[in-house]
Amino acid sequence: MTEPGPRPWLVTGARGMLARDVLTRLAAAGVPAVAACRHELDVTDPESVRAALARHRPAVVVNCAAWTAVDDAERREAEAFAVNATGPRLLAEACRAPGTVLLHVSTDYVFDGRAREPYPKDAPTGPLGAYGRTKLAGERAVLETLPRTGHVVRTAWLYGAGGDSFVRTMIRLAAGRGTVDVVDDQHGQPTWTADLAGLLLRLGGAALEGAAPPGIHHGSAGGHTTWCGLAREVFRLAGADPGRVRPVTGAAFARPAPRPAWSVLGHDPRRAAGLAPLRHWRDALAEAFPELARAAAGVTHEGVGGALCGRCP
Fold it and tell me: Is residue 24 part of a domain?
């Protein structure tokens, strides 16, 4: 009789920037993975969720599916809620009976941005807009439904080679001429998706061994800067003059959704489950830059493990 192989990890939102790096890390580690695009697993559809988890019997689900169009969420909150809140609840319910570990990715937008010190994971929440409200509802659904196997991982200011981001935009602008006005009164932690993917793998592995306490974790880079400071570092790495980046206030860019002025997440000094905080954002950006520059120039992101469905854009 053939022994069953190891149960795979299932990654939702498989076409997204973070999911691509999670799948790449899983492939490199030799961990079997299922890349679940929305056509295979629609997190807003109860039957789709139940069927996918019954079919694949994952040991870990990494929920990278999210409505991330922050401004659109202001006028389409019901649609954002379906993805960011209902989806995590359905996943958590499907994970409950088989004891599947759920790693749910959340955001700094659950806070109001009025702090001046890094937010500890138990800090009071207070989202400013629809996006933050829907993500906070998703967090609560996971933690209430899976008190023993649910993990919420908050992150901030993501960039990576597998999708558009502020960093890739700045790389393209650095190749041009003239000045660029960039907001200098919003503070955060630019976080490379490859680094966050590594943390998710370590957290999932520790959870399977019973070594990671369930609950909220912060997965963002060390240090912090402003959008202007990040843009200037991108220009420097690109060999362009950082002085071309001019600081302006957020008031210069009117947006439908308010942005938190302070998006700095605190990291547990106890390093729960042996998970060290991510490295400083400058060090990560320097390592990521060659791959990001290739992606900004139109080179296809390589190395994604798992079979994508081919029907998602």
Answer: yes
Q: How far is it, in rounded angstroms, from Cα 70 to Cα 263?
A: 15
Range of 90's domain?
9-163+190-222+265-279
Which residues lie across from 119 on neighbouring strands?
265
pLDDT band at residue 307 using 50, 70 and 90 as cut-offs: very low
- Structural domain count, the chain: 1
Count CB atoms within 10 A of the CB of residue 52: 22
Asked, for residue 204, whether it belongs to a domain, the answer is yes
Catalytic residues: 131
Burial bucket for residue 301 (CB in 10 Å: 0-12, 13-18, 19+): middle
Q: How far apart are CA 138 and CA 134, in angstroms?
A: 6
Q: Would the CA dihedral through 157, 159, 162, 168 be positive or negative? A: positive
CA 147 to chain centre: 22
Question: Among candidates 172, 167, 119, which has minimal Cα distance to 284?
Answer: 167
Pairwise CA distance, residues 303 & 286, whole Å: 20
Return d(Cα 23, Cα 11) in angstroms, integer: 7
- pTM of model > 0.85: yes
CATH code of 149's domain: 3.40.50.720
